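Need a sequence for this fold. Nothing fancy.
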């Protein structure tokens, strides 16, 4: 999704006003194609404020091989550069505003069945309701199980397949880092998305799982913030139109491993 030019391999500096205009044009194009954007909005300095959002961010920062690129990602997500973030089963797709509008894909491997079985066994009888689970009102013993660095619910670096359309050859560019933090912010609003990403049913952790039913594995409407929130973030006015249907499911699945592959930037008229 190329909008700018390059000099000596580095992107040309783009003033903030021009970035805002590009975002407005992109959002208008997406709306015509029937896609509603869901920007990441961070209020204040803290990216995440709830148990699940904080736990996600803390887990990212616990891995030294990710930590060196995370600070610039924090800046990007705080200033509203994650224009759109869509969470699906096993993947996160996003658009990030930088010198250009970049497409980001984070594939997350399904939680291995033996690992999930151990988590369920160690949490058995200790979580009373789905509400307790999603609100993070858990005992320290359960928290330790769910958030364990190697054996818990959160993915490690080797369980991530990350790509970005930017020219940065690093495994984790600032745009990818912003999206990873953006997931933490989104878990504040919809913690059930973590279970969707890992391909498991969180209701199986609840003591009365037989009566609890399946955990809702879709973002609530408040996560689809739409053009109104974009207007607040970027200081732009966007056309109003009738609500559009969500984007079509992404094609294909992410491959295993952590190696970051290059992607040829897509044209602005065909964002994914």
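Here you go.
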């Amino acid at each position: 999704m190329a909008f700018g030019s390059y000099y000596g391999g580095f992107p040309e500096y783009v003033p903030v006003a021009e970035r805002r205009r590009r975002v407005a044009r992109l959002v208008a194009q997406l709306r015509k194609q029937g896609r509603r954007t869901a920007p990441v909005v961070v209020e204040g300095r803290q990216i995440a404020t709830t148990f699940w959002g904080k736990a996600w961010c803390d887990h990212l920062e616990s891995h030294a091989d990710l930590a060196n690129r995370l600070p610039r990602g924090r800046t990007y997500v705080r200033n509203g550069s994650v224009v759109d973030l869509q969470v699906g089963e096993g993947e996160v797709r996003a658009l990030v505003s930088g010198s250009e509008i970049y497409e980001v894909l984070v594939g997350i491997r399904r939680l291995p069945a033996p690992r999930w079985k151990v988590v369920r066994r160690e949490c058995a009888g200790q979580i009373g309701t789905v509400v307790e689970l999603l609100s993070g009102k858990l005992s320290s013993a359960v928290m330790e199980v769910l958030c364990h660095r190697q054996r818990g619910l959160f993915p490690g670096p080797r369980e991530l397949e990350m790509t970005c359309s930017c020219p940065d050859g690093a495994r984790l560019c600032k745009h990818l880092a912003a999206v990873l933090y953006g997931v933490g912010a989104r878990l504040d609003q919809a913690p059930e998305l973590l279970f969707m990403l890992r391909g498991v049913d969180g209701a199986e952790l609840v003591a009365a799982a037989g009566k609890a039913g399946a955990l809702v594995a879709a973002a609530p409407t408040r996560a689809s913030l739409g053009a109104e929130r974009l207007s607040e973030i970027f200081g732009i006015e966007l056309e109003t139109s009738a609500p559009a249907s969500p984007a079509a499911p992404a094609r294909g699945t992410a491959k295993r491993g952590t190696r970051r592959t290059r992607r040829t930037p897509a044209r602005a008229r065909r964002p994914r």
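For context: The beta strands are 6-7, 10-11, 82-88, 91-97, 101-108, 160-164, 261-262.
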